[in-house]
Amino acid sequence: MKTRAEEFAGLSIAMVTPFRNDKIDLDALQRNTEFLIRAGVTCLVPVGTTGESPTLTHEEHELVITTVVRAAAGRVRVMPGTGSNCTAEALRLTKWAEKTGADAALVVAPYYNKPMQEGFYQHFKLLAESVGIPICIYNIPGRSAKNIEPETILRLAEIPNIQMLKEATGQMDQMSRIVSSTDLTILSGDDSMTLPYMAVGGKGVISVVGNIIPQDMVALCNAALQNDMETARQWHYKTFQLCRDMLGLATNPIPVKTAMKLLGMDTGELRLPMTPLNAKSEESLLQTLQAYGLL
Is the separation of the CB atoms in 28 and 267 below 8 Å? Predict the structure, then answer.
């Protein structure tokens, strides 16, 4: 079934924000952008969860968005995270993304203050009606503390400018209800759920492991989009082990930034309150990367 934002189908990358001495390393950010573009990704997603967005000032947030948009130079789509638990702040960031030339905005459910379902609806409605770029709802109750219920998402789908959903609940029933009742373009928010979600109508993934294995995740998504489920299953079985053994070590993005450091992919520094893996976990990660064939 054709969905509302088919141009975003495939692999999107939840980009890390490289730090050096607690400042954004713009050179590393540009190199990472180039690496991912050359790997054939569909879309770049800076300043989301993986980009440690809660630790960035508004000025840093805007700087990262601008840097990635300019580095991409129209070669791939860019969908920065612009969400906040303050509607006014989310509106400011989303307008900045539009002004800078982003192709869409990823807007996380307001976190911590736990709005009622009507609050979720009014929050996203205001944003969608205030900008011209498409809005992707990001539903991740494990971090935002509250689920955007399917009934609310179905209401939001009636707004033309709400075109995508990043689904990170892990609930197949919820996913199936939404995909069967709307034409939203749904992207998995969990790497290990990419194929299960695409099997019932999802169109791709906003991936963390894609930072280090973009070609493999491109292959998985492309096979699923072409309905070549045998090939897609083979890639799923391979990448699933990396997702399980790497991402389960600590809170995202600690494991993937550590992996990038071990692989020589620029800076793996974190910003507090994120802290590095301990020695035992780093050794486990090293073995995981070796088992996958990356080292």
Answer: yes
Alpha-carbon span 50 to 36, nearest angstrom? 15
Q: Hey, what amino acid is at 250?
A: A
- Distance (Å, whole) CA 22 – CA 81: 21
pTM of the entire predicted model: 0.97
Tell me the C-alpha distance between 2 and 10, whole Å: 14
Q: Are strands 19-20 and 23-24 parallel, antiparallel or unpaired?
A: antiparallel
177-219 confidence digits (pLDDT tens):
999 999 999 999 999 999 999 999 999 999 999 999 999 999 9
Q: How far apart are CA 187 and CA 265, in angstroms?
A: 26
Give tens-digit pLDDT for 257-268: 999 999 999 778
Answer for the pair 130, 105: CB distance below 8 angstroms, yes or no.
Answer: no
DSSP 24: E
How far, in Å, CA of 122 to CA of 119, rounded? 5
Active-site amino acid positions = 138, 166
Residues 49 and 253: their CA atoms lie apart, in Å, by: 8
Give per-residue pLDDT as tens, 22-34. Answer: 999 999 999 999 9
C-alpha–C-alpha distance, residues 236 and 230, integer Å: 10
The burial of 227, by beta-carbon neighbours within 10 Å (0-12 exposed, 13-18 middle, 19 or more buried), is given as: exposed
Distance CA 193, CA 290 (A): 23
Q: Is 82 exposed, middle or buried (0-12, 13-18, 19+ CB in 10 A)?
A: buried
Strands 77-78 and 185-188: unpaired
